[in-house]
Amino acid sequence: MARTPAAKTAARPARKRAPRATPAAAPAAPAAPAHAAPHPHGPEAFGAAIGGFLQSLSGLQVPQSRLSELQDQYVNQATTLWNGAVDQISVGGDAVAAAPKPMVDRRFAAEDWLKNPGSAFTAQLYLLNARTLTQLADSLQGDEKTKARVKFAVQQFVDAASPSNYLALNPEAQRKAIETQGESLTQGLQHLWSDVQQGHLSQTDESVFEVGRNVATTEGAVVFENEYLQLIEYKPLTAKVHARPMLFVPPCINKYYILDLQPENSLIRHTVSQGHRTFVVSWRNPDESMQERTWDDYIENAVIRAIDVVQEITGAKTINTLGFCVGGTLLATGLGVLAARGRQPAESVTLLTTFLDFSNTGILDIFVDEASVQLREMTIGADAPNGPRLLKGGELASTFSFLRPNDLVWNYVVGNYLKGDKPPAFDLLYWNSDATNMPGPMYCWYLRNTYLDNALRQPGALTVCGEPLDLSKIKAPAFIYGSREDHIVPWKGAWESTKILGGPARFVLGASGHIAGVINPPKAGKRSHWTNEKPAVSADAWLAGATEHPGSWWTG
Fold this sequence. Notes:
By secondary structure, this protein is of the alpha/beta class.
């Protein structure tokens, strides 16, 4: 459900607010002439690409020796499982003692699963089947990317098929329904209907949070805005501030306040408290009036415009810059365009979990090939027959959730709907559900030129805003951060940025994942980080010589 452009983005009520820009109306797309030649991204090309994928899929196979081994293992383990269940029923004994002990799996950790013989057998059989299917997928021989796709599909099926996900097979949910005289089922249906109405699965109690009241509370004012962004300047927390300001560019697929969730874990508040005059881009949520906007539009009218405004307001010749995730990719692209124009506005560049080199994109690689990119271009891109459309933020949010389905999907299906529980209040998951749209042409350019072609790292391979792009012309020193368990931007992919920019680069590795690794304030005393000031030829070599330090990377 599209929000108005500024929905849920402003920090506390602005002290000074620029006049609101009126979004330009998007012109209607002209109809294609009947005699038009086949488009290079048209159905014929897409069909050929799909055919190639299916052919590669048919070439996968499991070696016969491995298949026989897995079959024997399955029969033996299934026989043991069945005999244990029969013995338990025949002697009327305890299911825990008579049946094989289930694998350690929190979905079946409750006593309800072991006390009920039928449930114990169902859980154990499911785990055996899941393990065997996973081993079969791991044993495939053939194209690596196709194997990865098959493994991902198998994992999605295995996770969805868990008996814990179904009321008829979940003894915990059944017991709660009996104890509450059906009230838990009533609550579950109410939660389901509420989620249907809001258009996404609730991962947290969203009623607890409100932007400006208990999230995004660091005081600031909107000092500039256009149809792409609002630029927030934060109120100083120190008597004196550094002469050189700092500009944050967060990812445009979520709201800016991931950097300002709560006072105790706010990177923005931490930066302001260190005496930095801090500006942050708050991306507007694009509506249909912006569905034709391109990557070039975002670079020229958002990133470069924000840099110019910060310089105009502060009078600073150079500024410190920080980009997070795709915000870092946008920031580096903008600085690359300015470098081609003879400008070096950045005194420093900080990139947090950011790709500039897309050769190692981890699990996201399975979603990207010529066929999938062409499909996007044909449906929402600049060349779509019915005109460009928005990529809805909820679609991307669902994709990222299904990268970890047990933690971010089925866990909430069971809790919210089968047990009728309200999910606990969690600020990070509230932010995660507050997704933003992306204009189709902008997204398709990003998908093709980075994830598919990996052209951003190649000097002169791309022209952006009329300029040949060469990121090595960015001469500012760079601080590059990666999270060790990041499944969206694998840390080795983040490390590759050290070889692309033109200035000296320092890499720091943090523990945990894409978000929790970044949002790790020093006062929490959690996790650790690794540093290595010596040159390294690869990410593995860098890690081999790195030193681990306890606590947050924010002070490292």
